[in-house]
Amino acid sequence: MTTTADTAIPDLRELADASASLEHAPASAAVAWAWERFGTDMVLAASFQDCVLIDVALQVAYDIEVVFLDTQYHFAETLWYVEEIRKRYDLNLKVMRPEIPPDNRWQDDPDSCCNLRKVQPLERALEGKAAWMTGLRRDEASTRANAPIISYDIARGIVKVNPLATWSEQDVEGYIHDRALPVHPLAYRGFKSLGCWPCSRPVGDGEHERAGRWAGSDKIECGLHG
Fold this sequence. Notes:
By secondary structure, the chain is of the alpha/beta class. It is 33% helix and 11% strand. It has a single domain, classed as Rossmann fold (3-Layer(aba) Sandwich). It is globular, with a radius of gyration of 17 Å. The two termini are 26 Å apart.
């Protein structure tokens, strides 16, 4: 398969076959497949809720570019955590920011807020790239339940790689424990899914991990994953 960013549409059958073959393989195998195909034409988009995907990826792709979307509304603890992880792994880190100043759009138009502060900065980060890697998992939301490990992101015209797609919340916690990874400070305060401070809250016992995102509304996605 041609792997340059100039390719209009890759071989979709090859992507489907690769995804199927990786269904029961370690997450590192998906990273290895993508790194072999795309190399520096691929970026890893990290929310820094944790550093699991970064830890997995850097065992295979030690200099992969990691993108962080600084929405201007992150918790102070998240910005601290980004810097700690950057130093720990000597990350090839690229921080993308919105092209607008802080405002109150999140109060009455969260979809527009997410578009301007997450979606558009990501699109700028992906310009000229052939693939992007995410930490998306199927068990996070109904909208992600059928997410393949490898697919073609039609909206962006780029290959999308989800090495952790088959993982559960317990798998993530187990990996963090086994690898003694740094934990985001807010995880100790009940935050299981972290985004911007106006739109994230701790979850209670028995609540789904994403119950704290846009609580009280029917919004469940920011637009990065559909």
